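Handout, page 2. Input:
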Amino acid sequence: MGCGSSSEEAPPAVAPPPPEPVIEKFDIKVNVGDNVKLPPKKSTAPGATGPAVVMLFGGPATQKGLIVEKLHDEYRFQVLSAENLILKRMRAEAEVEAKKAAKRRKQQGTEEEEEEEKKLGTKQLFSSLKSNDKLTLKWVLDICKEEILKPENAGVPGWVVDILPNHKNLLRNEEYVSNAAEVLEEFENADANFKVAFALDLYLSENDFGEVLARAEANKKQAAKPEEEEGAGADGKKKEEKTSDEADKGKTKRRYQAYVSASKPCIDYFRDTGRVVKLTCNAPHELVWEQVKAIYQRLNQKQRHRANTLILFAFNGLLAGDGVDLGSLGLHVAQLKQLIDEERAAGTELGQRLPEHAAVPIKDSLEVVKKYVKEHNDAVGFVVDVTGIDFDKGTLAKTESNQLMFHNADLFGLSTFLPKAIDRKQAMKADNIMFQAVTTTDNQFLAFPDSAERDLCYQMACTLSTLA
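Output:
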């Protein structure tokens, strides 16, 4: 036997496993007061009420801005922001005074007119607000009355009134919320159009607030890692950035405390009459928004425009096997196997990429799904049953996305994801099916059965989000 070189060959490199999907559980609590209801539709009958008025409360990190935007976009509610109204009115009044002063100076022969006529900057206005005696809740609500009663606003379906400003100088103005209960009662009694249906309290406890800040900080550090790995930034710069971040965090905490103090008398007024909807906001905005929609659905308020496309994936006939009539829920139901067969039969370029007697590439399969969704864009939502499909997992896009996160949706049954539950009995049956949910970057809300393989679902969602 020879005794030549006997060094063993190195084993072939093994590709690293795909990243574990991020699974987080969020405990979103909703408390609805006993007297929360929307008024009947606007009528000319005696004593008829006007469009629904909802008072909105939300401090730092509650995602109030996103909720307001969606209420406007999807329900066509008009938004009255105290901060915007204050700045607009004060700027207009300041400019009138400046022009009067400029006119006087001109008559006196001075040359300062041009400077006096310049618009006051936001920073200058903010600096004067903390000690402004005129700045009161009554003054702001009087402006709201003017806006609501404008003839051009006669057809508005509802109002969202954000009566607490965000800026620190506004929140710290002690006169602003003095006698809040008396002022709010006077506002409601002034006209039927001003009757408040309920107060929506986007709530964060001090502990939850700290956790939200910690998550935001962790995400920021994660996003900065590639830069650090490239050696970007000297030690001095990192120290400076750390100091700046700590200062920003301190400012945010102080704003939170100022908001809690300012909002309490207003929220207490509505709580005393059983008209508060309290919604914890310690979750990503997609799930918080789903709960806001569920509240309005319970009050029989229909969406006027749907921003997100709902796609539910069913594995092994899960939904059909639970006796849920999906048609009664307004959902389009599609068998992916049938859609693929139709694509092959049509001889399209996409159909030619889908093998008939082999595992199906996942990207091509999802292109079929996307095509079907586009062709039926008037649907409330979709259920795509992938039963009988053998996915070629070797074709999964090994993709990570900072904008794509799974949420353990233990508290969310099927009806939570529905823009409109047509048959409530069926919706109750559907609530026996729990979903893990994910939002893609293309205005799609995807949901997968909790029993489905999470890595497969994660990669399907990543792949679908990358398709044009």
